[in-house]
Amino acid sequence: MKTKILVVDDEADLQLLIRQRFRRKIREEAYEFLFAGNGEEALAVLAAHPDIDVVLADINMPVMDGLTLLTRLRDTNPVVKTVIVSAYGDMANIRTAMNRGAFDFVCKPVDFNDLELTIEKTIAQVQELRTALHMMEENKVLRLYVDETVLKFMARPEFSNRLLASETVQATVVFIDICGFTMLAEKMPAQEVVAMLNTYFDQMVKEIIAQGGYVDKFIGDAIMAVFRGDYHLDRAIDAALAVRSLVQAIPRALPESLDYEPAVSIGISSGEMVSGNIGSATLRRLDYTVIGDVVNLGQRLQDAAQRHQILITDAIHTRVQDSFRCQAVGEVRLKNKAEPVLLYEVLE
Q1: 247 within 8 A of 204, measured Cβ to Cβ
Q2: Contact 313, 330 (CB under 8 A)
Q3: Architecture (CATH level 2) of domain 3-145
Q4: Which end of the chain is less enclosed by CB atoms within 10 A, N or C?
């Protein structure tokens, strides 16, 4: 990849010397040199070529000197690294240049061997900086799609060697569905539906995170959330209650012709489940998730729940009856369950 280097100096001879000394690099298209006669011209060149990596600048120049240019560069392009190339090799100027952001200092008359090494060192620093910034931007984008817990798992040293490994964990899974949203999607423009759904999701997710849970996935107009660690069941129920209250309090923002009031139906299941990357490493399509009968039961409970209902099993009720007020719903036949299951509704 070609490196662009801007030389800022009012001595015409330096341009010729640079081209002669680095003619091989120029011919190989490793370096491309641009030139400016003073700091003001340099800023114009930088504006036209934002991909410049290195600036070689004199101090004593007309219109705008090198030290002033250094100050302006910090605001114009903080990634660019500047090497001061000047006969003013006294300590005061060196300190001033460094304080204003110079990466290094080379004195005239120029030792071109030293200059070449300095340029190489500076380029390496810029490339490291650009790589770090690129990774930060990628990480920002990744965080829009991947939960923080998953990112932490991916950061483990053994992650790449254990792509398809899994672990058995004790956790609670919560399925939250926005009731009637499919019907609403048939009567509103798609963009408005997506915007409304994202607004609901954003507020619901905050309640999940507040209780130490993480969103495993969004499933259409539903959320699958997982809670692990100490008191995971209690925290999951607290989050479910908070989400229900939140959705009930959302002000109506739809035309009167649309008979729709937001509500959620929630199923909560807790116990042993398998956590890990599920999918195909060959296709590079993996989903970090939890699976197992406990997870399936949570989804079945959500399917059975009515508007505003939070359903749990009798076994979970036994564990939380001292902490939450519940009432029996009765025995309900759930999909893929041979026998009816005694269910309770969490009230508060």
Answers
A1: yes
A2: no
A3: 3-Layer(aba) Sandwich (3.40)
A4: N
Residue type, 33: F
Q: Which residues pair with 339 in a beta bridge?
A: none
| Spatial contact of 111 and 86, defined as CB atoms under 8 Å apart | no
In the chain, which segments carry CATH 3.30.70.1230? 148-346
Q: Which amino acid is at 269?
A: S
The string of pLDDT tens digits covering residues 275-330 is 877 666 665 566 668 888 899 999 999 999 999 999 999 999 999 999 999 999 98
43: its two tokens = 């800023």
Amino acid 277 reads: N
Q: CATH 1.10.3720.10: does it fit domain 148-346?
A: no
Secondary structure of residue 254 in the 3-state scheme: coil
